[in-house]
Amino acid sequence: MVNGGQSLAAASKILGIADQTLNDWVKAEREGRVGGAGSRPVNPEQMEIARLRAKLARVKMERDMLGNATAHFAKERG
What is the pLDDT of residues 1-16, one digit of tens each? Predict the structure, then answer.
């Protein structure tokens, strides 16, 4: 927004953040110190791999929970 010509004060008001915070971000971007999600390009394959890894982790956790619950109920009956 700021790089597009909008004033710093107007952009910070629209975004709901302090002027100084936005100023720091703009300064860091101009100096090439910006990191985070946009700091390196991500291709669709990398996005899919990340999504599948997250899904696999969730499924493994669900599996482990079901295994623990099954063992717990088997001990109660036995």
Answer: 777 788 888 888 888 8
